[in-house]
Amino acid sequence: MCAERSSRRTALCLILLFAIVPAGCTSQPVERTGPDLWVIQGGWLANVLYHEPRIAGDLFLKDPSVVLGAVPGRSFPMRSFAYASYRHFSHTVEGSPYFVRGFTSVLYDPEGWDATPLGERQHPGNAIRSFAALGHREGMTVIVTPHHNLTSVPGAECTTEPGESQRDAFLRCDLMGAAAKHADIVETQAQELQTVPDDYRAFVEASAAQARAANPDVRVIAGLSASNDVTPAQLFAAWASVRDLVDGYYLSIQDNAHAPIALAFLRLVDPAPGTSPAEP
After folding, report:
1. Distance CA 138, CA 148 (A)
2. Whole-number Å distance between alpha carbons of 232 and 230
3. CA 22, CA 268: separation in Å to the nearest integer?
4. Each residue of 9-30: pLDDT tens digit?
5. Residue 280 falls within a domain, yes or no?
6. Domain for residue 278, yes or no?
7. Is residue 213, in this structure, part of any structural domain at all?
8. How buried is residue 80: exposed, middle or buried, by Cβ count under 10 Å (0-12/13-18/19+)?
9. Residue 139 CB neighbours (<10 A)
């Protein structure tokens, strides 16, 4: 499990502030107008709201952006939830249907961690298909964020070969395509490459191409993380390197110590009116 995504263990609920039109409802691929879809955890959105309310409004408090978890001090209604397990999701829907009543979306985050049951880690394509079918049955937009460490799960149907990296195996196994076939939004978790923009772009480009080959209507977002050994300028360079490739970004923040990095990055992305915009 990657450190920058470890908060998903303790904050798996998400709030979708505005409904996202599910892909697959049109006969033609969606028109892409640029990366306007942001995903951020509610606790970190509260931090942005406190320090930079204008940026919060510009990027996160508008359609079609997604907020993960409750926003402390705010009364946004629960509209969605995130699961690392299809089994948990199905048990919720069948056993506690009141819990998901009114939800507009659901997120599935299968990774090589204990939160995802072994059977789902070994057969992620089947689990994604089942998860998406249940979410769509309930009228929800389905978001899937498969991690490349699924290719190192013992007994998995497609794993790394000798001398092969997890990311190379992830592409060879077409896990993004498997997710995009059934999801409305998919994330490519490229954040480990964010300090090298060329490598970051190459992985995002390859995984996004696989996703759209499987489903031309799918929306693709790229992972970014305010974490150890990254500067605001490096995050901005990674962000800028794929603007023409993605529909948005998932911004994670490792902990409180790294929140200032995220804020400085966001100020580069959305500079104050009257100032010169930052250059990639």
Report:
1. 28
2. 7
3. 31
4. 434 433 333 333 344 433 355 4
5. no
6. no
7. yes
8. buried
9. 11
